[in-house]
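Recap quiz, item 2
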Amino acid sequence: MKKAFPILGVLTAILLSYALYMALVWAPTEKTMGNVQRIFYYHVPSAWTAFILFFVNFGASIVYLIKRKPAADIVALVSAEVGVVFCSVVLVTGPIWARPVWGIWWTWDMRLTSTLVLWLIYVSYLFLRRFSSSGETPTLAAALAVLGALCVPFVYFSIWFFRTQHPQPVMGGGGSIDPRMLHVLLINWLAFSCFALLVCWSRYRLEKLQRDVDQAHALESLMDPRGSIR
Amino acid sequence: MSGNGYLFAAYAVTWIIHITYLGTIVRRYKRLQGEIEALKKTGPRS
């Protein structure tokens, strides 16, 4: 498995470069927005990837609450952390697109506000994990993750149920998109999904190692210099 | 800023966010390696 990591890393880098080329060169230029529309090829796949990671966090949290498996707790932590990174990309690229298209950086409409709330929920989750030293932290975090996951479908469907300035969904919302644009969008999503998977993988290994080291330190502190347990 | 400027800014910021996060992972990994080395020097006590 360790040998597969660099190979997958190189393949992902090639895929990301190809996706970038497709987004900047191959995709047709949108008539009204021009090149600014190409931000969509990073913004939308980042949002989809973040949503998937938050669902992984939800699933892992449920597994942890039922079976108390440390591996599930690590998966929950890692998916939330990487999900927050992708959600941050969404929250930054959205306003950069909105400024030239809407004339404003931000508006407090349902989609934008609920995305910000979603981000804040998972940032709170990470703060809880980072700064709480209670033995019950993984359980509390799992409960928060289950509640936080309820916000994900709300964010996704908010543009269906509320009047909003945000564009309608690309797929499943009755909107239409040039097939070449859809092709580029899906390639970028695939590339970012592979990238997210690799980052989660390395972060999982790091967390596992960190817990092993913490355990070794704990064991060491229990021992006196002669080797007997205090 | 032109349309191309916004496009460049969005793509650049995306990669800055990702690379910064990857940087934190690498930094934590290096710190952990230091801790492992220190533990190895301490040696098994039992």
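Chain B touches chain A at residues 1, 3-4, 6-7, 9-11, 13-14, 17-18, 21-22, 25, 28-29, 32, 35-36, 39, 42, 45-46 (CB under 8 Å).
The helical segments of chain B are 3-42.
End of item.
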